[in-house]
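Fig. S4 source data, part A: sequence.
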Amino acid sequence: MHDPRPRARCFFRSRPESDSGAAAFERELDRKPPGRFAAIITDVRANGVFVELLESLTYGFIATAALGDDFYALDETGAALVGRKRRRRFAVNDRLDVVVAKVDRYKRLIDFAPA
């Protein structure tokens, strides 16, 4: 049987892009030349580390190729990348300074490199 009452339409809108942290960070990069940012390592993978900037809470990735001229591998616990030659460690909760290496606005990804 047909319901004679009009149906209410409900539209869900996502947050505007201007509200997201990544979009604000991209606008900040457009205004001033990229510099050094304080970051903390939040996750370690075999191919790199994920970092979060302390001042803007923006997330990004540092590939092992950007870490330097050493070959990095996961340690026994899987919580740190350790260089074979120089034994430099990048572990979860380590702080480091980073610079922006690449911004992909379409995919909304930011790649960093150590400063």
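Fig. S4 source data, part B ends here. Strands lie at 37-45, 48-53, 59-63, 72-74, 80-83, 89-91, 95-104, 109-114.
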